[in-house]
Amino acid sequence: MTASKRVKRALVSVYHKEGLDDVLKKLHEEGVQLLSTGGTQVFIESLGLPCLRVEETTGYPSILGGRVKTLHPNVFGGILARRDNEADREQLLAYGIEEIDMVIADLYPFKETVASGAGEADVIEKIDIGGISLIRAAAKNYKDVVVVASVAQYTPLLHILEEKGAETTLEDRRWFAREAFAVSSGYDISIFNYFDNGEASAFRMAADDPMLLRYGENPHQKARFFGDFGKAFDQIHGKEISYNNLLDIDAAASLIDEFDSLTFAILKHNNACGIASRPTVLEAWKDALAGDPVSAFGGILITNTDIDKAVAEEINKIFFEVIIAPDYDTDALEILMQKKNRIILIGKAAGRPSRQYRSLLNGVLMQDKDLSVQTAGDLEPLTITLPSARETDDLLFANKVVKHSKSNAITLVRNKQLCASGTGQTSRVDALRQAIEKARAFHFDLSGAVMASDAFFPFSDCVEMAAEAGITAIIQPGGSINDKLSVDYCNEHGISMVKTGIRHFKH
Q1: Which helix (H) or strand (E) segment is 473 a member of?
Q2: Active-site residue (options: 16, 26, 140, 339)
């Protein structure tokens, strides 16, 4: 696959001209004839380079307000003709069509125009026709033609021109063709998604420039992240982010987004092992850590307020993988950066996606993200005893945490501090037992604490265990045919129970 071809004639028709001048000058130095249209032609001539107008090749002017410029057999015949096909060569000769060996074309900024909030008429005008046709034609005929489909490919092209002159190998042309089809397919997906208007009538996604990860969940698994990590976070220190780091970062960001008051959370394997809301960041950190100082080792730390020197000194006493905050005081960063591999992120106010995707079997699962938020007004009392104001605040706090815990999940909270949780258990009883034992292991008094469950109680066994542990208020979705068993037990023992009507399973 090393067949070399020389570029003798290049069609250049681009929207973005940044960085193109060096490429054009080099092509001219190599004796390549330049062919162009409209604004690109003016740009080429402004560089003092000769340029043949496309109209001189087609015999037709640009028409329909520029919608039709290059759509002509004299252009596409020159691109698509197979150089090793005698019939194609005879037809080129018969119709006086000259070969085109390189196409440099990009596309109107459709996605950017949509993002700008422009009206539909402006958006439609940014659906490129000529450019994408040129790109697809040149990419299809990569055995003979070089296609450069975006600004991102100007530099690789310039490197080739500087190393090999106007010569390209088959490997070179196939690489450019691959990149071109990535550009054209992503462009079409953006257009489809605009017309689909969020209905998800078909699954179409495209992402460029993946983040190469050290490995997947385990060292023997390869992994990449397709997305714009930099839109959500700035990494200011530390080693490369791993697959598992990304899972934890996503879980941490989703959890902290639930809280308006100053909150600090510690996560491990996507579950909160400590979280507290307090008046100061130092208090929030200390009470979050108290929830499970063992699991905090190697965890992910996140807060919705800035990190100062005092809390940095405390945080620096333990080993952790990642810390996320809106900002850091300079002296706090000096402390946190003492560990060279420690990942320090600044969280940005970027919108989170409203849908979730998961690959399985031979397809992809899609669902709306669980963005439901319950307030005091959403709680329906089920018992004679009503929760106090303090218990109501704790119930809402516990419900937010259990929403972001792996099912089956139970959370125990007192004074806006996670005392313990039971997560990822095959039964709700086991989840509660785990939470109670964990709370006791870290010397929490559960008297007056509240309990949240991510799903209903099929029997009264969990509320019985909770009562024995000192729990005084319970929040759950409700909906079991046996709800009455749990409610009756609570009424007999003076425990308040409210329901949300919203289940929060998480796998």
Answers
A1: strand 473-476
A2: 140
